[in-house]
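Q: Sequence in, structure out?
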Amino acid sequence: MLVCKFGGSSLADAEQFKKVKEIILADKNRRYVIPSAPGKRGDGDEKVTDLLYEAAAARQVGSPFLHILERIRYRYERIAQDLQLDVPLEAEFTKIASTMMTGASRDYAASRGEYLNGLLLAEYLGFPFVDADRVIRFDKNGLLLEEETNSLIADTLSSLPNAVIPGFYGADEEGNIHTFSRGGSDISGALVARAVNADVYENWTDVTGFRMADPRIVPDAQYISSMTYRELRELSYMGASVLHEEAIFPVRRAGIPTNIRNTNDPKHPGTMIRHNADRQANEHIITGIAGHKGFSIITVEKDLMNSESGFGRRVLEAVEECGLNFEHLPTGIDTMCVVLNEKELRPHREQLVQRIVELTHPDSVTIHDHLALIATVGRGMVRNYGTAARLFSAISAQGISIRIIDQGSSELNIIVGVDEDDFDKAVKAIYDAFVRV
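A: Exactly. Output:
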């Protein structure tokens, strides 16, 4: 059994709907479908969800918003007309407008994009429509009730061989709509896949899976055929944005593989993500490279720091008091470094330095800005001697100075910090050293 989630670009217009139908009908095991709201049809276009947020914001401040709903309605009517669908869109939009006028929440407005696309897709496929507010359960504060949701989905779909369940939203016990803050429809699809114990969760989008490096830096970067959920977590955390790792925790915990596929290139196998992919070894030692700019590193120096009980805790106490989250903690015998998001640190710089001095009485505290972090990730690294040496040599050969090194004992990844100006060059150097050999 396959559960399929289709992103906004996959359902942006009637032509994309036709591709989706062909994909679903090509395999009878594709039984449950989770659609997103229509995305951009091209450069300069707008996502339906963005328009709905705009309408909600206008309504909240008392500005006209019906004209925005009319623009949205036109998108759906165009799809329905092109596909010759009989869906009562006029009645649906009348209800949406009325509900928004009487004070409906921002979440309600935003959710209508998936809801309406679900109605169209269900009609087009001839599948039953299951409103997500029936099966995705939140508490009154908007926190997902995962086990209750799992039971509701399983019970509802047990009697339905096929169904379309819109993504991105659900409801609390009183019927109030809530949306997911991150991952949107990806989370909905993963919840459905877990509840029906799917063999594979297919996540259809507009890219052909993950690539080994950002194609904006390495245009010909190879696609990753297979990775583990742990590798996905590392790469996503460091900037790989095809799929947010938090969105697939339900299937990860259930041991269900996730397959990232391209709606516009359905014959390509994409990237398969498994709990344990050792059997599916990749061609290269590394799986991928990802990174971020915009970090600062605070270096705290003090002689005999390592023999002073609680020193590190006090440094982190200062960080916590400023409401900051640290990224990494590379340390030495007499130095402790804390890597922070530069933008988040900016308004707290003086306060943080002063508090560190008060709590630890260091010899010096310095801050280095404009740092970029690069993670080289791969389950094959642990079995290959000299991986770190190869990586450092590649960066050094380009005349790049490494500011920090952070490697876990599992050797799943090696993180290096370089100046932002050297970021692209360092990524290319690592890629060339491990892939173009």
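The two ends are 40 Å apart (CA to CA).
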